[in-house]
Design brief:
Number of helices: 6
Distance between the termini: 12 Å
Strand order of the largest sheet: 1-6-5-2-3-4
Shape: globular
CATH architecture: 3-Layer(aba) Sandwich
Radius of gyration: 14 Å
Number of domains: 1
Low-confidence stretches: none
Order of helices and strands: EHEHEHEHEHEH
Strand content: 15-25%
CATH class: Alpha Beta
Number of strands: 6
Mean pLDDT: 94
Structural class: alpha/beta
CATH topology: Rossmann fold
Helix content: 25-40%
Amino acid sequence: MLFPKKRVRRVTEISIDYLRSKGIRGLILDIDNTLTTHDNPIPSEGVAHWLDLMRENGIKMIVLSNNHGPRVEPFAKILGLDYIAEGKKPLSSGFKRCAAALDLSKEQLCIIGDQIFTDVLGGNWYGCHSILVEPIQPESTAFFKFKRFWERIILFFYKEGERG
């Protein structure tokens, strides 16, 4: 449950060919440290172009964030995406709402995020594909440092290709 199906450095490295090969028609996207740095209102370099490429190829997308509406709404609007704030990842309720909003089955969905204990665990628990991106920028709080410590231990045992 804690291993992603795939790992990439940045979200922009995820190709249409890869998504098609897995039957993925919709993406559930995390914001902070996935599409931009924490609390940054501007998408990281290449993200807008990558989103356009996804749209051109018929990939549906929605933002799912544990953050509050005042953070999520303006960022999602910049990207032209629907969103669910306070998503309660890793619980399945936010993922179910995303599936309903995109009108896709969980098997057709992929969560893309930077955290094992929210994005990957939640996506795997719900039953959708999961892709882990490296955090864009290290966090400074003790809580995040604690989580990242345990993530490094988990990823030590991860082997690409064994998870699907």
